[in-house]
From TrEMBL, chain A:
Belongs to the adaptor complexes large subunit family. Transmembrane segments: none annotated. Its main location: membrane. PANTHER family: AP-3 COMPLEX SUBUNIT DELTA-1 (PTHR22781:SF12), DELTA ADAPTIN-RELATED (PTHR22781). Residues 53-659 form the Clathrin/coatomer adaptor adaptin-like N-terminal domain. One of its GO terms (biological process) is protein targeting to vacuole. Residues 708-754, 1065-1074 have a biased composition (Acidic residues). This is AP-3 complex subunit delta. The gene is Piso0_004825. Part of the AP-3 complex, an adaptor-related complex which is not clathrin-associated. The complex is associated with the Golgi region as well as more peripheral structures. It facilitates the budding of vesicles from the Golgi membrane. GO terms for cellular component: AP-3 adaptor complex; endosome membrane; Golgi apparatus.
From TrEMBL, chain B:
Its main location: membrane. The keyword tRNA-binding does not apply. The gene is Piso0_002280. The keyword Transport applies. One of its GO terms (molecular function) is clathrin adaptor activity. GO terms for biological process: cytosolic transport; intracellular protein transport. Gene3D superfamilies: 3.30.450.60. Belongs to the adaptor complexes small subunit family. It is found in: Cytoplasmic vesicle, Clathrin-coated vesicle membrane; Golgi apparatus. This is AP complex subunit sigma. Keywords: Cytoplasmic vesicle, Golgi apparatus, Membrane, Protein transport, Transport. GO terms for cellular component: AP-1 adaptor complex; cytosol. Residues 3-142 form the AP complex mu/sigma subunit domain.
Length: 1148, 153
């Protein structure tokens, strides 16, 4: 036979040159595709379409030869993405050919294209049966291959017996294919497994290794779903493992052990040593890898056992060999194993030599995939000693190398990792917060803020990173008081004045503005009192008075009006200010509105502390203040009609108040403001004109534009006046004029005295603004002292401006004074005779600060609000009357901002059941007394965090020590003296830090970290419980690539059960799938219900829970308070000391 | 242990061979192929050849101008997948005699036959090199017999 075949092939080889018709046709197709794809897309697609129609025609032919050829061509075309299911019937025809060649093509096509074609495969059943029972083993093999790939539930039932018979075929080739095909049948028709289980097990004793291997394969797959049924055959598997030398088989058995070990932990004792010796003996890295996988994934290691640790250590040592090979694949899989081992035994990281070094190398690997993997456990590497270097190397990963971009998702990962590493264990490992702030600043620069050559991060990622880092900054600012100053110097102030932030990551500003507004005193703190900075570092900032910087920032933010007055569209003096107007994120804007008012407030308080003597302020200062106020109002007016409700609401309510202030401070006399504004505008006009290169031509243009702008300027001012005039007396202007003349005389007398004084203060201001604050500061210098540059313009304008009615004479007066001394002019306006001094209205000095300065803002845990049970003594009507409550609060002056409204509303809607329940109970109760009690409570409870057990945190900020008048409204705690201790502490810490600064490594400083206020167990948060269940439901969707072996999930193997009974249960595996799905869905919904219920009951159960946890957290020094809910609020934890160097825990 | 699919991609991103062991619609196939092609072609030679893609792992290896790409399950052995692909290449090399991309293009059905003798429904069922080739040539002989009959008639 064999010799005949050889002869045949010889004959064929000789015949080939003559060409066998159909082979040529396939070659033509392939060649055609190749040549056409070189030409163009269209010609290729045309060619392909032609080819398909040609195939269709050929399929109509009765000649099986041509049909087979067409099918083969279609198989080729299928690779190009053409559907070929339409010719399934023809494929079936070709399969049924008597000629092996055609049959082979048919099967190939079927394997490639058949997808659960139920109807079609009914037709195919007979064909399969015929082929399975063929006398030619090759044909049987072909049929088995086909069955294994395309079997359907119906087909599997029909064909089951025939395949079972093949398990005992004389040829191992058929046996092994049959057993693999059986697995497929089991999947579709699980009943078969019950009946034929023993026949499969028998195959473990087959004489042929490949059959055993295939059997193990099948068992391994089934055991993934149902390992229990194979436990008793463990000894058999074990013998196979010990006797065979076939690595493929060994790896399969190890895989099997992995699943078995999960349900039979006892086997570990016997198997583990064998696996270890196997691992040490072999040279095949795939086997070593599989051994480790088996040990780790088979749950053979428990973190507590020292023996297991020894095993893990051996594994780690083996893995380290992978890294030595420099093969990146070995490196990757080694890393995978290493990660899983290290997760179990973190101590191995430092015990086995080179492990941490290797991990670090992986983090800096150029392959992003390896980098990412290593990043996963990078936090375990971190110790107090290496955190700086690790974080630095993480940051370095953000720098693009060799023109390869850093993907956005990776930026996000690094950001998350750094934040996680740093904040881990309550900032345990941070050496000092200066360093950390610098890291955050670098992080921002490397991710969201593009450098000159940098590439933009996509908007979504930028937003995400921004809010992550912003949140961290916020946490730092609230929880680490000593870091606030550095935070301001290094991040807040630079970023507020950075155009790029506005352009690329406005989200960041939400937090930046918030911090700026909330802790604006930090600017002042650095100079006025807290002179603790190391002199080498911040020399310049030290000499700068806070007011100048405040004004600088303020101007940079709100001075857009100046640019519009100057009609500048490009090269604006205040780009920040105009960009701010472009922000469309309402979150940012609503914070910004608040922050601007806070900023203004701090300017007011700076003025009043610097210039107020005996409750009076120099008139010029007062008018400067009123000018600031005017600018702020003008700027805020941009949002008065903002589309977002929150923004509009905040803006209008502030505007209302600020306008009142303006009225109070100016007495409806805006001339001072006009002068100041004019001067400022002039200054910038000068500034821009001096930067122009053209001289003569430019000048004439300038003068023309001067006039234009002055007119428009005046018009706008006039309008303002008209508005206010309606409200106030018309006669005032006249009286003003009169008084002016009087004052002129008076000024001359007074001039000299004032001169000296003012010069002193002005100098102070000018010196501030030299370096840092840029145009804004210069501007400030200008109108405060009117330097010689500014004078020239100021001289000119009033003359060209003479058409102004009552302003004109006044301006003329001014000029003369300007020439002598600018300060004269400013005092012209003073309406009383008290040596140019006036009182600031209480609206500014008392009411405005009181909005912001009652309590220090305490860090409150993110979810704390959700855990608060609604106090049981609040009757339902009150909740409905929420508006009332909030009104009360704002009147009593303790409200922080409008957030409270939202919070309280949220809270109310959160517990509707509870409240309605209480309604029944509470009906008829004396509501008025309740209200009284509530008011009593609210007095000390600005955030309404919990019931009256909450003690508001004392104000620890230094400024309060200097401003006792603000402390009046504070809670009595302030008097207890704790804050001073605290601040002393931070002082000490900083001092200690300064001493150690010389050493190169960032030294651990003693830092006070406020703990977050929280109530109860965070995990009780309904959000948390919701999330996983949601995940589950999405997971229920099957991945198209996932193998469908679900039938075994529920498959309880019990050979004694009556197969007939079982049959009825699971007639069709499709049904089973459906049933399974239903059950899963049911489970999921039950779970959801449960979580819902628990969240409903949350208010009660959580309360008890939280009591437990809070008492466990409780510090021993305060056992008496153990039962209060919000106890944590008062607890201030400082890093616990490991070494003596480190700080000690200080608990308030 | 199951291999989800095997793809052969040329360096230009052209499909040379594709075998899916899962039921995946043509549309999805095209999507996965496209995504994988861009992913794999963008990686440099020194980088590791395991990718995590959706729920599965992608293991690829480059032989001359061809990328051999397989998708395996999450907890499968990547090194074994590499080994399997290497086997496949070895078999083809023996069968075609110093295999090159053109051999696979024009003799794609042969390549499929070899693959079928090595892997059945995603499982490597024959670890012996000789056996696989013996089976393939046996089948080829059978085909030739048909051919011979054809000519004689």
């Amino acid at each position: 036979m064999a010799s005949f075949q050889i002869q045949n092939s010889d004959v064929l080889a000789r015949l080939k040159p003559f060409g066998i018709s159909f082979e040529k046709s396939l070659h033509d197709l392939i060649k055609g595709i190749r040549s056409h794809s070189k030409e163009s897309e269209e010609s290729l697609s045309k060619f392909l379409n032609d080819a398909i129609t040609e195939c269709k025609n050929e399929l109509l032919s009765t000649d099986l030869e041509i049909k087979a050829m067409a099918v083969l061509k279609l198989v080729y075309l299928e690779m190009y993405g053409f559907e070929m299911s339409w010719c399934n019937f023809q494929v079936l025809e070709v399969m049924s050919s008597n000629k092996f060649q055609q049959k082979r093509i048919g099967y190939l096509a079927a394997i490639q294209s058949f997808k659960n074609e139920q109807d079609l495969l009914i037709l195919a059943t007979n064909q399969f049966k015929k082929d399975l029972n063929s006398s030619n083993p090759t044909e049987i093999g072909l049929a088995l291959s086909g069955i294994a790939t395309i079997v359907t539930p119906n087909l599997s039932k029909d064909i089951n017996d025939d395949v079972i018979l093949k398990l005992n075929h004389s040829k191992p080739y058929i046996r092994k294919k049959a057993i693999l095909a059986m697995y497929k049948i089991f999947l579709r028709f699980p009943e078969s497994l019950k009946i034929n289980f023993n026949k499969i097990i028998e195959k473990l004793d087959d004489s042929d290794t490949s059959v055993i291997s295939a059997t193990i394969n099948v068992i391994c797959e089934i055991s993934k779903k149902n390992p229990n049924i194979f436990i008793k055959y463990l000894p058999k598997f074990f013998t196979i493992l010990e006797t065979t030398s076939n690595n493929w088989l060994i790896i399969r058995i190890l895989k099997l052990f992995q699943s078995l070990s999960k349900v039979e932990p006892r086997m570990k004792k016997k198997i583990c040593p064998t696996i270890l010796s196997l691992m040490l003996k072999t040279h095949a890295s795939s086997l070593i890898y599989e051994c480790i996988n088996c040990i780790v994934n088979g749950n053979m290691l428990s973190p507590d056992s020292s023996k297991d640790k020894e095993t893990a250590k051996i594994c780690v040592e083996q893995i380290m060999k992978f890294f030595e090979t420099r093969d990146s694949n070995l490196k990757f899989v080694g890393l995978l194993s290493l990660i899983s081992l290290i997760k179990l035994f973190p101590s191995l990281l430092h015990k086995v030599p080179n492990v941490s070094k290797t991990l670090m190398n992986c983090i800096t690997d150029e392959d992003l995939i390896i980098k990412r993997k290593a990043l996963e456990i990078s936090q375990l590497l971190v110790t107090e000693d290496n955190i700086a270097s690790i974080v630095q190397s993480l940051l370095v990963q953000l720098i693009p190398k060799d023109h390869s971009l850093v993907p956005d998702s990776f930026k996000l990962e690094i950001t998350n990792k750094i934040l996680f590493i740093a904040s881990d264990d309550n900032y345990m490992n941070i050496p000092n917060f200066r360093w950390y702030v610098a890291v955050l600043s670098d992080l921002l620069n490397l991710t969201v803020i593009p450098s000159a050559s940098g590439v933009l991060t996509s908007v979504d990622t930028a937003d995400e990173i921004s809010s992550k880092v912003g949140g961290e900054l916020k946490i730092l600012a609230t929880r680490v008081p000593s870091s606030r100053h550095v935070l301001f110097e290094k991040i807040i102030i630079p970023l507020v004045q950075d155009e790029k932030v506005l352009k690329y990551c406005p989200m960041l500003l939400r937090d930046i503005y918030w911090i700026m507004g909330e802790y604006i005193e930090e600017i002042g703190a650095s100079v006025s009192s807290l002179d603790v900075e190391s002199p080498s570092d911040d020399e310049d900032t030290q000499s700068i008075a806070p007011l100048g910087r405040l004004v600088g920032i303020f101007n940079a933010l709100v001075n857009h009006r100046i640019d519009t007055l100057l009609d500048l569209t490009s090269s604006q003096n205040f780009p920040i200010s105009s960009l701010i107007l472009d922000i469309d994120n309402p979150d940012v804007l609503s914070i910004l509105v608040q922050a601007l008012v806070k900023l203004f407030n701090s300017i007011v308080s700076a003025y009043s502390s610097l210039f107020v003597l005996n409750g009076r302020i120099q008139q010029d200062k007062a008018s400067q203040l009123s000018y600031f106020l005017f600018k702020l109002i003008k700027f805020l007016e941009n949002w008065e009609r903002h589309l977002n409700y929150e923004v509009q609401e905040r803006t209008t309510s502030w505007l209302e108040f600020l306008r009142l202030c303006l009225e109070a401070i100016t007495d409806n006399d805006y001339s001072e403001i006009e002068i100041l504004e004019k001067r400022e505008v002039e200054y910038y006009k000068k500034l821009s004109s001096s930067s122009r290169i053209e001289n003569t031509k430019g000048l004439s243009d300038e003068t023309r534009s001067f006039i234009d702008e002055d007119e428009s300027d005046e018009n706008s001012v006039e309008e303002d006046e008209e508005e206010s005039d309606e409200e106030s007396d018309d006669s005032e202007e006249e009286s003003e004029e009169e008084s002016e003349e009087e004052i002129d005389e008076q000024n001359e007398q007074e001039g000299e005295e004032g001169l000296q004084e003012h010069n002193g203060t002005d100098l102070l201001e000018i010196s501030n603004e030299e370096d840092e604050t840029g145009p804004g500061a210069e501007e400030n210098a200008d109108f405060a002292s009117s330097d010689s540059k500014g004078l020239m313009n100021i001289d000119e304008t009033p003359i060209s401006n003479a058409n102004g009615d009552e302003i004109a004479p006044h301006d003329v007066n001014d000029i003369s004074h300007f020439n002598q001394n600018n300060e004269y002019a400013n005092e012209n306006e003073s309406t009383d005779f008290n040596n140019g001094y006036s009182e600031l209205p209480a609206l500014l000095t008392q009411v405005l600060p009181s909005f912001f300065k009652c309590y220090n803002l305490n860090p409150i845990s993110k979810n704390a609000q959700r855990n608060i049970a609604l106090p049981e003594d609040i009757p339902n009507d009150e909740i409905e009357d929420l508006q009332d409550i909030t009104d009360d609060i704002s009147v009593s002056g303790v409200e922080e901002d409008t957030y409270l409204d939202l919070l309280m509303k949220k809270e109310a809607s959160y517990y509707p059941e509870v409240t309605s329940f209480h309604k029944d109970l509470m009906e008829g109760d004396a509501i008025s007394t309740k209200k009284q009690q509530r008011l009593e409570r609210m007095k000390y409870d600005p955030y309404y965090l919990a019931s009256d057990t909450v003690e508001p945190k004392p104000n620890s900020r230094i400024k309060d020590l200097f401003k006792p008048n603000f402390a009046k409204s504070n809670s009595p705690d302030v008097l207890s003296g704790t804050p001073s201790i605290k601040s002393m502490d931070s002082l000490k810490g900083l001092e200690a830090h300064r001493k150690r600064k010389k050493s190169k490594r960032p030294v651990k400083e003693r830092v006070l970290i406020l703990s977050e206020e929280t109530i109860g167990n965070e995990s009780g948060d309904p959000r948390d419980t919701d999330a996983p269940s949601a995940n589950k439901s999405t997971k229920a969707k099957r991945d198209p690539l996932k193998r469908g072996s679900t039938p075994f999930d529920s498959f309880l193997f019990n050979s004694s059960t009556d197969p007939m009974l079982q049959e009825g249960e699971s007639n069709d595996s499709n049904d089973i799938d459906l049933e399974e799905m239903r059950r899963k869905l049911e489970k999921a919904s039950v779970k959801k219900d449960k979580t819902k219920k628990s969240s409903k009951n949350g208010s009660h159960s959580k309360k008890t829970k939280s009591e437990k946890t809070s008492s466990s957290k409780k510090d021993k020094s305060q056992p008496d308070k153990a039962d209060t809910l919000a106890e944590d609020s008062g607890v201030v934890t400082v890093k616990k000391s490991k070494k003596k160097k480190k700080s000690k825990a200080i608990i308030e | 242990m199951a291999i989800q699919f095997i793809l052969l991609l040329s360096r230009q991103g052209k499909m040379r061979l594709s075998r899916w062991y899962q039921t995946v619609s043509q549309k999805e196939k095209a999507k996965i192929t496209k995504e994988l092609t861009t992913l794999i072609l963008s990686r440099r030679t020194k980088m590791c050849s395991v990718l995590e893609y959706k729920e599965i792992k992608i293991v690829y290896r480059r032989y001359a101008s061809l990328f051999f790409v397989t998708g395996i399950e999450q907890n499968d052995n990547e090194l074994l997948a590499l080994e399997t692909m290497h086997r496949f290449v070895e078999h083809m090399d023996k069968h075609y005699g110093n295999v090159c991309e053109l051999d696979i293009i024009f003799g794609f059905e042969q390549a499929y036959h070899i693959l079928d003798e090595l892997i059945l429904d995603g499982y490597v069922h024959e670890s012996s090199k000789k056996e696989v080739l013996r089976r393939v040539s046996q089948q080829d002989e059978l085909e030739n017999m048909d051919e011979f009959d054809n000519i004689l008639t």
